[in-house]
Amino acid sequence: MFNQFLFMDYIRIIILIIFSVRIMLTDLKFKKIYNKDLLLMSATGLILFFFGLNFDLTPSLATNFILALVFGIILWKMNIWSAGDGKLFAACSLYLPYKMYLPFFSAQVILLNVFILAFLFWLVPMVFKTKKSE
Length: 134
Hints:
The chain contains 5 helices and no strands. It is an all-alpha fold. α3 (58-77) packs antiparallel against α4 (83-93).
């Protein structure tokens, strides 16, 4: 049996990967995340969301996007990441699979995974650099 929501989740993930690769390459090459890429990514995410015809999740999508944008701005103002990364976080929140929508802030999954991964990238070299006498 054809599951429309599962199909749309696959489409959204594929498009998210395409945008992510483009943004990653420009970020690595030019040290910049372009607003035009983020706007196109956000607009595409919104179109795909509404194309999925799951309008009962619209309040969750709006809440999730706004909270992701607010958290992105806060983390940027705290100098934890750049402004482009904060906007990218909000844009990525539009691509969460339908089943991941939690009542309040679904993008917390992305946020936690990013910081757990960053912590591991920081911790592992620190362990190997630490001398036994320390």
